[in-house]
Amino acid sequence: MLATIERAAHLIGAHFDNAAGKLGITQGEAHVLATLSRNGPTAIGTLHGEFRHKRSTLTSIVDRLEQRDLVRREINRRDRRSLVICLTPTGEQAGKQVTTVLDQVERALRETVTARDIKGLEKVTEALAGVVHHPAPDA
Fold it and tell me: pLDDT tens digits for 51-110?
C-alpha cells in the first residue's frame, strides 16, 4: 500500500509542478496559493498545521510570495499577536489558476472512478493524516 501512496503523491506532485512552473512558482508556493484561494485569509499557524513544513520553510515560501506581490501579511483581527496571510489581487488570479488545475484533476478522477472509490481515498487520506500528523522539526 505504501508504494501506491508514494506513486499517487509523485503523480500529483509532478502534475502540480508542471502547473506551478507555468506560473513561475514552486509546488510549495502553489499549495499555499490554493489554500488561500479556497479558504480566504489564513493564520500563519493554520498554514503551518496544514502543510507541516519547517516554520522557516513556510516563512520563506510566504516571503517569496510576498516579494512577488501575490500575498500580504496582516495582523490577525481575532488575535492581534499573530498574522494572517491574504491574497493580493494578483495572488487571487494565480490562486484561481492553481485551483483550476486541481479541480480539473478532481473532475477527471470522478469521471474515471466510482463514488465508493472516492470515499475510500478520503478514508485512507484521513487515516494517513492521523498517522503522520505530528509537528515538523524546526531544526
Answer: 777 888 899 999 999 999 999 999 988 887 888 999 999 999 999 999 998 898 889 989
Question: Could you tell me the three cell numbers for 131?
Answer: 498517522
The ranges assigned to domains in the chain are 2-132
pTM of the model: 0.82
Count CB atoms within 10 A of the CB of residue 134.
7
Fold of 2-132: Arc Repressor Mutant, subunit A (1.10.10)
CA–CA gap between residue 6 and residue 22 (Å, rounded):
24
Contact by Cβ (8 Å): 93, 28:
no
Q: Which three cell numbers stand for residue 87?
A: 491574497
- Residue 117 C-alpha cell reads as 472509490
CA distance 120 to 93: 33
